[in-house]
Specification:
single chain, 342 residues, Rossmann fold, Tyrosyl-Transfer RNA Synthetase, 3-stranded parallel sheet, globular, binds adenosine-5'-tetraphosphate
Length: 342
């Protein structure tokens, strides 16, 4: 079975670079999150200085129940540990433990023209999905820029949907540096070889808010049900019709769950195999792939201290970075305290 964690990253960061990424606790981790981002979080932690954040402030744009958000944040820490993040090799933090992210976002707001955030594609998409058109939704990518560059991270493992946000982060950095001097480096995205995973509808990006996901820690039966409901090649009506693996989401996903995907695609193309066979095989392979992670997650969930201990260790590790950057920023812009608190 091909190992997602060995997926080539492009472009490869240099070892001196710091890697940062954030994930919203807005629902259960799904195949898109895993193949597009989490697999790289895990792969990069061996060689780079890696910081990963559960961005709970960002999730406030879509999750409006306090108890639910707290639970989702807890669950996302468990998900990330279960997929292979190791607190000894990376810092796992909670965004809201660092008010400095919001402080820096405010400063970035003052160097960013409104038109830059208004044109962000995700702003339009999220409103179309029915999210409240709040100032927070508009400002989302500015907080994201602050999350990244407060650590002077230069590489950001994300899915392709985040490319526009990263572009905006670079523009914000350039605007800040032009006004106040060369404080921040420009962050670049790092993609896996599955930068956009489509949902079970086979057309839209797999996304929690679109309700088209395959949650990676769902029960095996639920995974089977969801995979069997996936839309395949719409032109393949009868079992004997030849398929087009290049437009079939099921065939595409096979690339990540077995070394024999070319044979599988050939079977579809020549109608040797039917969509039901191909889906059934994919479901079993997904279940097998995530089985050890599911078991690990269950073990972790039984330990009531693991989540807060992990976040405390991550916070202790990154706090000096946050303080050093904010001292530099405050000195440059002429506000607040400069230096460590006494
Ligand atoms: N379908 C996807 N394909 C590839 N990468 C994806 N990611 C999300 N969906 C896909 C990547 O996963 C990381 C964490 O995403 P997030 O939960 O913080 O935000 P998101 O991109 O908005 O994910 P969703 O599922 O679409 O959440 P909702 O619906 O709540 O907004 C990111 O690196 C993202 O690129």
């Amino acid at each position: 079975m091909s190992q997602i964690v060995e997926a080539p990253v492009s472009p490869r960061p240099s070892t001196a670079e710091r890697v940062f990424s954030g994930i919203q606790p807005s629902g259960a981790s799904h195949l898109g999150n895993y193949l597009g981002a989490q697999a790289n979080y895990v792969a990069l932690q061996d060689e780079y200085d890696t910081i990963y954040a559960i961005v709970d402030w960002h999730a406030l744009t879509s999750v409006h129940d306090g108890a639910e958000l707290r639970q989702l944040t807890h669950d996302m820490v468990l998900d990330l540990l279960a997929v292979g993040l190791d607190p000894a090799r990376c810092a796992l933090i909670r965004q809201s433990d660092f008010p400095e992210h919001a402080e820096l976002a405010w400063i970035f707001n003052t160097v960013t023209p409104v038109s830059w955030v208004e044109r962000t594609p995700t702003y339009k998409e999220k409103r179309q999905q029915g999210l409240e058109n709040s100032v927070g939704l508009l400002d989302y990518p500015i907080l994201q820029a602050a999350d990244i560059v407060i650590y002077k991270a230069t590489r950001v493992p994300v899915g392709r949907d985040q490319a526009a946000h990263l572009e905006l982060s670079r523009e914000v950095v350039r605007a800040f540096n032009r006004r106040y001097g060369d404080v921040f480096p420009e962050p670049q995205p790092v993609f896996t070889d599955a930068p956009t995973v489509l949902g079970i509808d086979g057309s839209a990006k797999m996304s929690k808010s679109a309700g088209n996901t395959i949650p990676i820690f769902a029960d095996p039966d639920e995974i089977r049900r969801l995979v069997m409901s996936m839309v395949t090649d719409p032109l393949r009506i009868k079992r004997t019709d030849p398929g087009r693996p290049e437009v079939c989401n099921v065939c595409q996903l096979h690339r990540f769950f077995g070394g024999d995907y070319l044979q599988i695609q050939d079977g579809e193309r020549t109608a040797r195999t039917g969509c039901v066979d191909t889906k059934g095989l994919l479901a079993e392979r997904i279940i097998e792939f995530f089985r050890p992670m599911r078991a690990r997650r269950a073990e972790l969930a039984a330990d009531p201290a693991v989540v807060e201990d992990t976040l405390a260790a991550g916070a202790a590790r990154v706090r000096p970075i946050v303080e050093a950057t904010m001292s530099e920023v405050r000195a440059a812009v002429g506000v607040g305290r400069v230096g460590r608190p006494r």
